Amino acid sequence: NAGVTQTPKFQVLKTGQSMTLQCAQDMNHNSMYWYRQDPGMGLRLIYYSASEGTTDKGEVPNGYNVSRLNKREFSLRLESAAPSQTSVYFCASSDGTVYPNEQFFGPGTRLTVL
Amino acid sequence: SQKIEQNSEALNIQEGKTATLTCNYTNYSPAYLQWYRQDPGRGPVFLLLIRENEKEKRKERLKVTFDTTLKQSLFHITASQPADSATYLCARPYGNNRLAFGKGNQVVVIP
């Protein structure tokens, strides 16, 4: 099993450009998450999906949109990138049917917005 | 606010000694806490979960305690090794199956 995979690993954008970060999990998990991690700020939740077809805003959703394409895939879109969105982005998944349960993280996408 | 706090200073420790990290929470009583390890350039990896009615949990050289009176969890790495050098994150549950993470505590084990 690959677990949680993310693409791309690295990306450089110019201010105003758009891009989509892809995430997929092969563990048949119901819940999926997008976090950003900044120095001194820790992991902050951007969006959350409890199940296919549902999404909820997290702590820092402004400037982002998400799509839960199916049970496996959860994408994060930046419509008009800003330098403040320079960060490392992590996707995670969890079972969601068992309480409590741990989260499984992908390797991350390092994004720089110039 | 319902904060979860970890000491932001790096912990430098000699190989073979016990490293102890602290996770403090305020203004709520979590049903459980989770601990994760994160290596540079990688995603966090789950280590241990401890419930509020459990005083202590162990996994190999790792030990976690949960003191609801002090509103604190301690994370111990016994007989530390250079391979234990990493950042360790504490997390509390909230909402529907979500976690709020502390900022993490870096451990450096010196050979």
Q: What brief labels describe this structure?
A:
heterodimer, A: mainly beta, B: 111 residues, mainly beta
Question: Helices, strands, pairings?
Answer:
The complex is a heterodimer of chains A (114) and B (111).
Chain A (H helix, E strand, L loop, with lengths): L3 E4 L2 E4 L5 E7 L5 E8 L3 E8 L6 E2 L6 E5 L5 E5 L8 E8 L9 E2 L3 E5 L1
Parallel strand pairs in A: 2-11
Antiparallel strand pairs in A: 1-3, 3-8, 4-5, 4-9, 5-6, 7-8, 9-10, 9-11
Chain B lengths: L3 E3 L4 E4 L4 E7 L6 E7 L6 E7 L4 E4 L2 E6 L4 E6 L8 E9 L3 E4 L3 E6 L1
Parallel strand pairs in B: 2-11
Antiparallel strand pairs in B: 1-3, 3-8, 4-5, 4-9, 6-7, 7-8, 9-10, 9-11
Give a verbal description of the structure.
The complex is a heterodimer of chains A (114) and B (111). In chain A, 0% of the residues lie in helices and 51% in strands. Chain A has strands at residues 4-7, 10-13, 19-25, 31-38, 42-49, 56-57, 64-68, 74-78, 87-94, 104-105, 109-113. Chain A starts with a strand and ends with a strand. The model of chain A has no long low-confidence stretch (mean pLDDT 95). In chain B, a hairpin with a 4-residue loop joins strand 7 (62-67) and strand 8. Chain B is an all-beta fold and 111 residues long. Chain B has strands at 4-6, 11-14, 19-25, 32-38, 45-51, 56-59, 62-67, 72-77, 86-94, 98-101, 105-110. Chain B is globular, with a radius of gyration of 13 Å. In chain B, the strands form two sheets. In chain B, strands 2, 4, 5, 9, 10 and 11 form a six-stranded mixed β-sheet that branches. Classes of the chains: A mainly beta (114), B mainly beta (111). Chains A and B meet through strand 5, strand 9 and strand 10 of A and strand 5 and strand 10 of B.
Look at the helices and sheets of chain B and give the structural class: mainly beta
Low-confidence regions of chain A: none
Strand content of chain A: over 45%
Distance between the termini of chain A: 36 Å
**Low-confidence parts of chain B lasting 5 or more residues at pLDDT below 50?**
none
The largest inter-chain interface, given as chain pair and residues per side, is:
A-B, 26 and 23 residues
Order of helices and strands of chain A: EEEEEEEEEEE
Number of helices of chain B: 0
What Rg of chain B is obtained from the alpha carbons, in whole angstroms? 13 Å
The biggest sheet of chain A amounts to: 7 strands, mixed
Radius of gyration of chain A: 13 Å
Which range does the strand content of chain B fall in? over 45%
List the helices and strands of chain B in order.
EEEEEEEEEEE
Count of individual beta strands of chain A: 11
Please tell me the overall pLDDT of chain A: 95
How many alpha or pi helices of chain A? 0
Number of DSSP-assigned strands of chain B? 11
What is the multimeric organization of the chains shown? heterodimer
Instruction: Give the % helix of chain A.
Output: under 10%
